[in-house]
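Hi V.,

Quick status before I head out on leave. The structure for the redesign project is tokenized and pasted below; the design run finished overnight.
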């Protein structure tokens, strides 16, 4: 076995072990293999590029206990623009490895460059102040949720006002029925995120929009069109539903997005949209869901719906930073 493959396998095991411990899951061999392979394909592969560093911490018995990975990669959907990417592996509760990681970052700060991004797991949140001191702030928080629980808590909190607020506004929901509907929805998404790029700078990118448009068209052909929100004949927003691989608990899982014209926001309408999409997910047999967000309303709703935090995405040089206490609900 080559040295590279050996290290790759060690990193994959550490990644899997940390997540299983955090979620208190005793994995089957099949589940472990799936998560380790997912790490190799989706996480480790980008870090095999040149122009960075791989730092390993081992125990006295030479067991890998922590790692810091830094590399240079093309920005997503921007093949000619590059950024530094970082990742830290450690076990939940291992504070000494976090101190080690911090010292590695301090000694190799120049490797992070002017533009960088990366992810921290929830149990690594003690490193956030160091990153913020270097101008690398939280861009989004990863929130997970149980569909049945979220629907129950949402209804308990708002009661009848959910549907009443929606009907009072004269809104109704219809599935996209044509390519023209999809194109109109994409234009609405672009318009809203252009106004607020801090919530999704990638959305303005033509390559990303082309990807989303193709994905939405394929979903419509496969009988899973986005649900569009109208006031009369005017398009006001939409609900996107994406099936993703099962979570660590093996349950059927989804990701979803809610987009609403900014003029319609702040009127209690999104809570009714949450109820609608949770019902749709429930009907299709999904059990859990997740998503990344930096939007205050989504984070507040997450608390109401009993969601839990998985980790954070941080960056520097992508869009204007959020205020320091922007994510305080989830820290």
């Amino acid at each position: 076995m080559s040295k590279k493959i050996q290290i790759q396998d060690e990193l994959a095991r550490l990644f899997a072990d940390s997540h299983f411990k955090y979620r208190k899951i005793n994995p089957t061999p099949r589940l472990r293999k799936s998560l380790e392979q997912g790490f190799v394909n989706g996480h480790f592969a980008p870090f095999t590029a040149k122009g960075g560093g791989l730092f390993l911490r081992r125990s006295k018995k030479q067991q890998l206990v922590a790692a810091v990975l830094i590399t240079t990669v093309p920005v997503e959907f921007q093949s000619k623009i590059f950024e530094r990417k970082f990742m830290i592996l450690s076990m939940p509760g291992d504070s000494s490895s976090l101190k080690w990681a911090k010292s590695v970052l301090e000694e190799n700060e120049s490797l992070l460059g002017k533009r960088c991004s990366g992810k921290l797991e929830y149990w690594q949140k003690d490193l956030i102040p160091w990153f913020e001191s270097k101008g690398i702030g939280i861009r989004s928080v990863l929130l997970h949720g149980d569909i049945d629980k979220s629907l129950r808590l949402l209804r308990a909190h708002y009661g009848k006002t959910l549907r009443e607020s929606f009907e009072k506004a004269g809104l109704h929901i219809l599935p996209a029925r044509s390519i023209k509907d999809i194109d109109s929805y994409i234009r609405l998404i672009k318009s809203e995120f252009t106004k607020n790029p801090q919530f999704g700078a990638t959305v303005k990118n033509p390559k990303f929009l082309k990807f989303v448009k193709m994905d939405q068209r394929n979903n419509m052909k496969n009988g899973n069109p986005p649900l569009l929100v109208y006031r009369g004949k005017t398009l006001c927003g939409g609900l996107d539903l994406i099936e993703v691989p099962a979570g660590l608990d093996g349950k059927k899982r989804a990701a979803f997005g809610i987009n609403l014209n900014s003029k319609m926001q702040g009127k209690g309408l999104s809570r009714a949209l949450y109820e609608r999409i949770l019902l749709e997910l429930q009907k299709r047999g999904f059990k859990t869901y997740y998503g990344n967000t930096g939007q205050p309303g989504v984070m507040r709703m997450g608390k109401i719906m009993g969601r839990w935090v998985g980790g954070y995405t941080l960056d520097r040089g992508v869009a204007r930073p959020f205020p320091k206490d922007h994510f305080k609900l989830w820290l």
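Above is the designed sequence. The longest helix spans residues 3-23.

G. will cover questions while I'm gone.

Best,
W.
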